[in-house]
Write a structure and sequence with these properties.
The protein is an alpha+beta fold. 36% of the residues lie in helices and 19% in strands. The strands form 6 sheets. Strands 12, 13, 14, 15, 16 and 17 form a 6-stranded antiparallel sheet that branches. The structure holds 2-(butylsulfanyl)adenosine (IVH). Residues 82-84, 113, 115-116, 120, 173, 236-237, 297, 316, 319, 321 line the site of 2-(butylsulfanyl)adenosine (IVH).
């Protein structure tokens, strides 16, 4: 293909992709399937990679991110980014209306919009192309977050049609849709649980609410992570020197026609009565929106009247925000339950009289620990205020003392484990109570086994929590090592009825030939899991996937880790005091040493086969990623991987559209070759690799 043809194809792909992007993310009316979209995107990425001279910052390929910004450039706003005055009730709103009425003698209208709870952004377009995106900062200057903003699908990188000004700024709110927020937190929670964090530590690390999440995400250094977090943006103001519009609502209509996502819920009213009806209408309806809103913004619609009214030092006189009250409900606390986790941490949970809050029924609220109960001063049967400020689990914010029943007793934290009766302990300086009976306490044992078989650990997916519970109850397993001792005759015909705590639904598990064989095969296959996965599966507190890998790479074997002191442990990459102490403690316990011996005698992998040759020979392969398959004549498979790494390349396990090369030796996997073909990943030979290293890229 000639260069000219390639350029034409690239241009066409970019235009088409932007159009479909708009149809999908702004209009919610896609014309092609996700698969077709992905194929077009893969083709564009391939062409751009092969023809770097046609690279462009506003290509749709930039939406996947990949740029790392160490520090964001400070940019001065062309028009200062002010904030709004707030009102909290009808009276304050009437005062605002009065002031406006006094200043404008003519008739006027109000435009009402929902106040989206996110972070403000100013986008500058020149000749229809997004050139800069700046956060509010202090209102005078903000951070240049353009690379991150380019990953937000609903923000056009190029405007396709319309009579837009040569240069303008458009302002709006970047937010995280509740769905993205919940997905990220669910994943993060699973990860932290896997690392053995207790509930309070997890609560501290989760994203607090969608607004916080949006503001944190937009300032992340790696734009590829930003892309995955699926932010969205709704625009609410157009600014330019030559003012082509008469009213605010007209400007937003125009912005919509240029391809911007503007709110479909805005309305114009002739008087305050209308404004109040809008506020009332959305007070409850807003919970059905896919994003958080915290009020209504009321703006004088005529731009001429706006400029007559002007600004105070902080905010415009022509606009005001009406803020809804925090979402809160009053309900009775019926009891407190105590949950015991796999680390023995005991967490109190309040059982509430079911109540409707922010669109969902709330039955439980977390109490974290004893201090929290004392701080709130909870008595049995108290009426409590529950809030859900965007967090996933609602919390009790205060007690309604006026309705406390006479003779009611304060809640006392339990002294014994609710599951095994052992006296609880609370270490100095820690807020959490623990059940120290780790060897015999059922939820701790079951929790450790669930963790051991989980997907990112030993991945024994033929066993689920229900089956583990059954095997434990029947006395067949008391720790993860026992899984490897199970035989066909132990399992066949086992039955148990399990009740789901949440829904109360009953389910019968019954093991027949097929499922028994599947379970045994799953267990058998897991013996081959790499050492770092086993290390993670052991469930040492604070040893997550990444830490396990770092320990495996640094120490190579379980023996070395067990023998290492705290000082030695912290020498490994990313291992700090807290982790080192936890690992050291773990291997001091004879029970854990026995557990390791047990796993070892079952033939599980206790040594790492991660290559650790750190010698740098060149940077010829810098920034390139390789998948390796087949047999080679000059190297073993591991040697060739090390060789790539020594020259700055990255070796990855499976092919994606981002992979640069598939290095194929003899007998390379047909499925890998097939996938490389489909994703347009270049296939190279051992000889090609040597040429790349010995000449140029
Ligand atoms: S208009 C001069 N409209 O609320 C300020 N703001 O406290 C004009 N916001 O910084 C702002 N939704 O981040 C406007 N429909 C909307 C809004 C909105 C959310 C945010 C914005 C602003 C803050 C004002």
């Amino acid at each position: 293909m000639s260069k000219e043809n390639i350029r034409t194809e690239i241009e066409k792909l970019r235009e088409e992709l932007e159009r479909h992007n708009y149809l999908y993310y702004v209009n919610s009316a896609p014309e092609i399937s996700d698969r077709e979209f992905d194929q077009m995107m893969d083709r564009l990425i391939k062409l751009e990679k092969e023809n770097p001279e046609f690279a462009s910052a506003d290509s749709p390929s930039q939406r996947v991110g990949g740029t790392v910004t160490k520090e964001f450039r400070q940019v001065r706003h062309k028009y200062p980014m002010l904030s709004l005055g707030n009102t909290y009730n009808e009276e304050e709103l009437r005062d605002f209306d009065e002031r406006v009425r006094k200043a404008i003698s003519d008739e006027f209208q109000y435009a009402c919009e929902l106040k989206i709870d996110g972070v403000a952004i100013g986008l500058t377009y020149k000749n229809g192309r997004l050139v800069q995106a700046v956060t509010r900062g202090d209102g005078e200057q903000g951070d240049d977050v353009t690379t991150n903003v380019r990953t937000i699908r609903s923000i056009p990188l190029r405007l396709s049609t319309g009579e837009y000004p040569d240069e303008f700024e458009i302002r709006g709110e970047i937010f995280m849709p509740r769905k993205s927020f919940e997905r990220i937190n669910t994943e993060l929670q699973a990860q932290l649980e896997g690392e053995g964090y207790d509930e309070e530590e997890i609560a501290e690390r989760l994203l607090k609410n969608p607004r916080n999440a949006a503001s944190g995400t937009i300032k992340m250094q790696d734009s590829a992570v930003v892309a995955k977090r699926k932010l969205d943006c709704i625009l609410y103001a157009v600014l330019c020197n030559a003012d082509p519009f008469k009213t605010h609502s007209e400007a937003l209509e125009a912005a919509k026609s240029w391809g911007f996502h503007v709110s479909e819920h805005s309305k114009v009213y002739d008087n305050l009565q209308g404004v109040l009806s809008f506020i009332n209408e959305w007070e409850r309806k807003r919970y059905n929106l896919p994003y958080d809103t915290d009020g209504v913004v009321i703006k004088v619609n005529s731009l001429l009247q706006q400029s007559d009214l002007g600004f105070t030092a902080k905010s415009p006189r022509w606009a005001i925000a009406y803020k809804y009250k925090a979402e809160s409900a009053l309900t009775r606390i019926n009891s407190i339950s105590y949950q015991v986790g796999r680390t023995g941490a005991v967490t109190p949970v309040a059982n509430l009289e079911p109540v409707l809050l922010a669109g969902t029924t709330v039955k439980r609220a977390t109490l974290h620990n004893e201090d929290q109960i004392l701080k709130l001063g909870l008595y049995e049967g108290d009426m409590v205020h529950v809030e859900k400020g965007g967090e996933i689990i609602p919390k009790i914010t205060s007690v309604d003392l006026s309705s406390r029943m006479s003779g009611a007793k304060s809640f006392e934290f339990i002294h014994q484990c609710p599951e095994c009766g052992t006296a609880l302990i609370r270490k100095e300086g820690e807020a959490q109570h623990y059940c120290p009976n780790s060897l015999k306490c059922p939820p701790q044992i079951k929790g450790r086994i669930y963790h051991f078989i989980s997907r990112k650990a030993m991945n024994i997916d033929s066993l689920g929590e229900g089956k583990v519970e059954m095997l434990f109850d029947k006395g067949l397993i008391a720790n993860p090592a026992d899984l490897y001792k199970l035989k066909y005759e132990n399992l066949i015909g086992l039955e148990k009825v399990i009740e789901d705590e949440e829904t109360g639904k009953r389910k019968k598990i019954s093991l027949q030939d097929r499922s028994v064989k599947k379970i045994l095969k799953g267990i058998e296959d897991s013996r081959e899991m790499p050492f770092e996965r086993l290390l993670f599966a052991m469930g040492i507190r604070y040893v997550g996937e990444t830490v396990a890998k770092k320990l495996a790479v640094h120490f190579k074997s379980i023996e070395n880790i067990m023998q290492a002191g705290v000082e030695e442990l912290i020498k490994a990459e990313e291992i700090g005091d807290k982790i080192a102490e936890s690992v050291h403690e773990y291997f001091k316990d004879p029970l854990n040493i026995n557990f390791v011996q047990d796993l070892k005698s079952q033939g599980l992998r206790m040594e790492s086969d991660i290559s650790t040759n750190n010698t740098v020979l060149s940077d010829k392969l810098e920034g390139l990623s390789f998948v390796v398959s087949g047999v080679f004549s000059n190297f073993s498979r591991d040697e060739v991987k090390t060789y790539i790494e020594q020259h700055g390349g990255k070796v990855i396990g499976s092919i994606s559209s981002k992979t640069n090369f598939l290095l194929a030796g003899q007998e390379a996997g047909p499925s890998k070759l097939d996938k490389a073909g489909k994703l347009n990943v270049q296939v190279i030979s051992e000889e090609d690799l040597l040429n790349m290293i010995n000449s140029g890229k």
